[in-house]
Design goal:
There is one protein chain. With 399 residues, the chain is an alpha/beta fold. 41% of the residues lie in helices and 16% in strands. The strands form three sheets. An eight-stranded mixed beta sheet has the order 2-9-8-7-6-3-4-5, with helices on both faces. Strand 7, helix 9 and strand 8 form a beta-alpha-beta unit. The longest helix is centred in the last third of the chain and has 26 residues. It binds pyridoxal-5'-phosphate.
């Protein structure tokens, strides 16, 4: 065999811990609280099939041909309207369509960071962001969170202690975070933007879950707030996705960024995939234009509310073993095993009993809290949630 030579980032790369768990999914009878998979039963198959047929009938050549790197005008227009309904004023020229929001982050890393640059990420935070940043050679600093997300007081102290200009980027998921489910309160959002202005920071607001609120009042996104503030204008790049509200199989996300960043990301995307699948874009544009998302959303939210509630009810029975923070939206419940029980040891017992979750270690840039874990209520049905939690209870009893 030749002696292949790899780039420094790929000498000994480690894959995603969550994806490593997928091998257990094929075990008969396995119930998974592991992935951030949307519920298959909520996929709006009829309306998507209709949108797909319509898209192909109306514009077959646009579906089949390459398209502009920034995305099809028809979809960008729909996404700018969607952003408007969510509260931010965004023109279609500001929307860059991406192949999932994950690509948006990757493009930003390409255009904004040099190896060794410092990036702040919530602790615990989204593992694929940590992975992408690490591969780019970024120095990842943890920003402390609590039940309400980023602790902006501690962030203020952390930033004040660093030399000016040290932090290039702050990546966060302020609304129904992955993994904690936390939603950053308004006062902290405002403080975060004030810190961005004071320390000349760029904030990446990753928002795939914001539309999945099933209780409480909607809060403005960081993007929307930054548009209302003279000091914070241009300091937020907003990433979002159709994965969690329509279907991840579309692989459609988008970025809203200041012009100078948007243009560079578009050029970076030219070398990554030329363009996002025009066929998928046509289908999504058709689906959104027909108002199907607004029709489907209430049912989706009610469905996730029921699942979350069912999981919280089941977890209340396991209170002696695990402490949790109930979310108001999204797909995740974050837990801490009591008495320092190791989530990895629990996982081994859980796999034997055919239930999966993600041990919390995957979500830390350094010094993982080994007693933490993430449970997703999104994909399993109500019966599976009950059975899975009974099995988890048995696993706890064995430790
Ligand atoms: C916080 C966060 N960002 C981005 C993504 C990726 O989403 P997409 O399917 O749009 O690439 C996920 C998916 O789980 C996520 O949890």
């Amino acid at each position: 065999m030749p002696d292949y030579r790899f780039s420094s980032a790929f000498q000994a790369p480690t894959g995603s811990v969550i994806r490593e768990l997928f091998k257990y999914l094929s075990l008969p009878g396995m119930i998974s609280f592991a992935g951030g998979y949307p519920a298959a039963q909520f996929f709006d198959r009829t309306a998507l099939a209709a949108a797909s047929a319509q898209a192909f009938a109306e514009a077959p050549l646009d579906c089949l041909q390459y398209a502009a790197t920034e995305g099809l005008p028809a979809l960008r227009e729909q996404l700018s309207l969607l952003m408007g309904r969510r509260g931010a004023q965004v023109s279609m020229d500001q929307v860059l369509v991406t192949t999932g929001s994950q690509q948006g982050l990757d493009l930003l890393i390409k255009v904004l960071l040099e190896p060794g640059d410092t990036v702040l990420v919530e602790r615990p935070g989204y593992p694929a962001a940590l992975q992408a940043l690490r591969m780019a050679g970024a120095r990842v600093l943890s920003a402390v969170t609590d039940r309400d997300g980023l602790d902006t007081e501690r962030l203020a102290a952390q930033l004040a202690a660093l030399a000016p200009g040290t932090v290039r980027l702050l990546y966060c998921v302020p609304t129904f975070a992955n993994p904690t489910g936390a939603c950053l309160p308004l006062a902290r959002r405002e403080q975060l933007l004030a810190l961005a202005a004071r320390h000349d920071l760029l904030i990446v607001e990753d928002d795939p879950y914001g539309a999945l609120r099933f209780s409480g009042q909607a809060l403005p996104s960081l993007l929307e707030l930054s548009q209302r503030s003279d000091d914070a204008q241009g300091r937020v790049v907003h990433l979002s996705s159709l994965s969690k509200v329509i279907a991840p199989g579309l692989r459609l996300g988008w970025m809203v960024a200041p012009d100078a960043i948007n243009q560079r990301c578009r050029i970076a995307k030219q070398t990554v995939d030329l363009c996002t699948s025009p066929w998928a874009q046509q289908i999504a544009a058709e689906y959104l234009r027909g108002g199907a998302l607004e029709v489907a959303l209430p049912g989706l939210l009610a469905g996730y509310r029921d699942k979350c509630q069912r999981m919280l009810t089941g977890l209340a029975e396991l209170e002696e073993y695990i402490e949790i923070s109930p979310p108001a939206g999204g797909m995740f419940i974050w837990g801490k095993c009591r008495q320092g029980v190791s989530a990895q040891a629990l996982l081994e017992q859980a796999i034997e009993r055919r239930v999966l979750f993600v041990p919390g270690a995957a979500f830390y840039a350094e010094a993982p809290e080994l007693d933490s874990l993430r449970l997703s209520f999104a994909a399993p049905d109500l019966q599976q949630i009950d059975t899975g939690l009974e099995r988890l209870g048995e696993a706890f009893k064995r430790l």
